[in-house]
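Data deposition worksheet. Section B asks for the primary sequence of the deposited chain exactly as it was used as input, without tags or linkers unless they were present during the calculation. Section C holds the resulting structure in C-alpha cell form. Section D is free text for depositor observations; keep each observation to a single sentence. Incomplete worksheets are returned to the depositor.
Section A, Depositor: J.P.
Section B:
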Amino acid sequence: MKSPIISQSIQMKNKNIHYLEAGQPDAPSVLLLHGASFRAKTWEEIGTIKQLTNQNYRVVAVDLPGYGTSATISDEPVQFLVKLTDNLQLHNTVIVSPSMSGRYSLPFLIQHHESVRGFVAVAPVGILKMAEKLEGIQIPTLAIWGSNDQIVPPSQADILIQTMPNCQKAILKNAGHACYLKAPNKFHENLIQFLKSLK
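Section C:
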C-alpha cells in the first residue's frame, strides 16, 4: 500500500510552520531538514520521502522558518527544533541535515543528543565553529558529502570523524554541495543503509 505524502502545518508563536509527512505514526521517524536554496518539497521531488516510507519509516520534511511556506519566527534555531520535535512527537528520531540547516541540527545535537537516534550530516554549516562541543558525542552519524563541494569542503567530514567516535563517511563522486541532487540514487543507498544499521 502506498503511503500518501500529506501537507500539514502547526502553529508556533501564532505562525504557520509547514511540513510534509508520510508513513505510519508509530514507525521509526526520520526528520528531513533542508539547505538555504531548498524546502521540504525538495525531498518529495527527488524521491527521498517515498524511498524512506517504502522502507517503513515515518518521514517528516519541514519548511524551516522563513523558507518554503513557513512563516519567520523569532525562536532560536535550537528552540525551534525542540518545539517541533515535541509537537510532532519525533522522539528518538534520525535527523538529516544539509547545509544551512546545520545551524539548527548541530546545536540541537549538542544540547539534546539523548533524544536523537541517528544523525546524517549532509555537508552542514557550522562544523568548524562547533567541533569542540561535538567532541565525544556518541550518536551514530553518517557524514555524506559531494566530492566537488566548494561550499563546505569534504575535509570537514573528517573533522566529524575525528570528533564523533560513532561517525562514518560517504563521499559521492562528482557531486557538489547539494550532493543528493546530483547523485540521488547513491545518496538514498547510503542513507537507507545507515538507517538499517541503527538498533
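Section D:
The chain is about 35% helix and 25% strand.
Residues 142 and 168 are 5 Å apart (CA to CA).
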